[in-house]
Structures are given as C-alpha cells and as structure tokens.
Amino acid sequence: MIMRIFEVVTRPGKEAEFARFFHDTAIPLMRATKGLVQVLPGAARSESPREFAFVMIWRDLDALKAFAGEDYTQPHVDAAEAALVEHRSIRHYDLVADQSAA
C-alpha cells in the first residue's frame, strides 16, 4: 500500500472559502474514490489557519495512478480549489505494517 500526504496552504484571506470546499467537496470526493483504503483529512488549526492536509492510503500504485494519472508525483488539483491555494506539496511512502498489533 502507498501512503500519499497532500498538503495545501491557502492564499491569504481564502481560509474560510477553502474550508467550505475542503469539508463540502474534497472530503466526500476522496472518501468515494475507488482504490483508497483510508482517508485522513486534516483541517486547519488556530496556529496554522491556512494549512490543510490529506493522508491517504492507496491500495496500490495502479489505484493511485487511476486517480492522479501517470505522473502521480504531482498534486491532483480540483478546478474549484485552484484559485484558493497558494502552495501544494505531495509526498509518497510505502506503508509499513503496524508490528505492535502482532
């Protein structure tokens, strides 16, 4: 499985508008995406009001590519968020099984 961490920083003054998009559009969209095993959305906190994130666990690389395209190393951006976001970052990791549960 692949862990994909997607982080955004909103444009100044766009925090509330992005928060509505995040909760009303992005989270439901990601939860309904085929190939995702788990989605952990992270909303802004008072000390970082412009930062939002998703931690996604993908079944495999094929599922991730079906969502993001062949160049899955680039952020997949919904057109509705493009004008709201100042910066995006994306990272991928191989998921390590929890050895403490054994």
Can you put this structure into words, describing what you see?
The chain has helices spanning 15-31, 61-68, and strands at residues 2-10, 36-42, 51-58, 85-94. The protein is of the alpha+beta class and 102 residues long. A 4-stranded antiparallel sheet has the order 2-3-1-4. The two termini are 18 Å apart.
Low-confidence stretches: none
Round the mean pLDDT to the nearest integer and report it: 91
CATH class: Alpha Beta
The number of helices is: 2
Helix and strand string, N-terminal first? EHEEHE
Shape: globular
Strand content: 25-35%
Structural class: alpha+beta
Helix content: 10-25%
**Structural Rg:** 14 Å
Major sheet: arrangement of strands:
2-3-1-4
CATH topology: Alpha-Beta Plaits
CA-CA gap between termini = 18 Å
Summed up:
This is Antibiotic biosynthesis monooxygenase. By secondary structure, the chain is an alpha+beta fold.
Quickly list its features.
single chain; Alpha-Beta Plaits; four-stranded antiparallel β-sheet; monooxygenase; 2 helices; Antibiotic biosynthesis monooxygenase; 102 residues
